[in-house]
Amino acid sequence: MSTLVCYLFPGAMVALEEKLKQNVLKNITIVSNTLALLLYKPTKVIKLKEFYQTPIYVYHWQPK
User: Fold this and answer.
1) Is 16 exposed, middle or buried (0-12, 13-18, 19+ CB in 10 A)?
2) 48-58 as b/e: b if 16+ CB within 10 A
3) How far is it, in rounded angstroms, from Cα 45 to Cα 47?
4) Is 53 left (phi over 0), alpha (psi -120 to 50) or beta?
5) What is the CA angle 3-31-9, rounded to 5?
6) What count of other Cβ atoms lies within 10 Å of the Cβ of residue 43?
7) Would you write out the chain's pLDDT as a tens digit for each of its 64 residues?
8) Which of 32, 43, 56, 63 is packed most tightly, with the most Cβ within 10 A?
9) What pTM was computed for the model?
């Protein structure tokens, strides 16, 4: 299983959703700082214990 870490890059999140829709990625954990995938529900959301309570979104992707 692979892990992909995303940090504050909206364009990459759009491209990532396209790859997920096309089933290009297989068995991957996606960890995203601040930005969520619009079309997919995260497995877990972690709120950092800091002033902004920055969300960290975790997705465990396995194509159907």
Assistant:
1) buried
2) eeeeeeeeebe
3) 7
4) left
5) 110
6) 12
7) 799 999 989 999 999 999 998 988 889 999 999 999 999 999 999 999 999 999 999 999 987 7
8) 32
9) 0.88
